[in-house]
Amino acid sequence: MACANTVAALQRDFIHFDSSISGLNGCVYASGATGNIVTEDIVHGFEEMAVFNGVELAQIIAFAKEVQRILDKTNNNGSCMFGTQP
């Protein structure tokens, strides 16, 4: 749902989006919530839609993997699991 909401907002000229590296973090109001939209996935989606975002997808994926390694957490978001190709 977060991806669909992001695209809908983009279509209405929103340009700022809240996301989280590797989907880490959560919501203090929703127990068990996994966090915001995954940064790597939104960047990948924007690239697929030819939306310039100024973020280098390969670098953000590498950074997300490093964060996962440091925190000893694995998140199965699409971009980190499958790389930059859908």
From TrEMBL:
The keyword Lyase applies. Keywords: Lyase, Metal-binding. It comes from the Bacteria. GO terms for biological process: ketone body biosynthetic process; L-leucine catabolic process. Residues 1-61 form the Pyruvate carboxyltransferase domain. Transmembrane segments: none annotated. One of its GO terms (molecular function) is metal ion binding. Belongs to the HMG-CoA lyase family. This is Pyruvate carboxyltransferase domain-containing protein. It comes from Domibacillus iocasae.
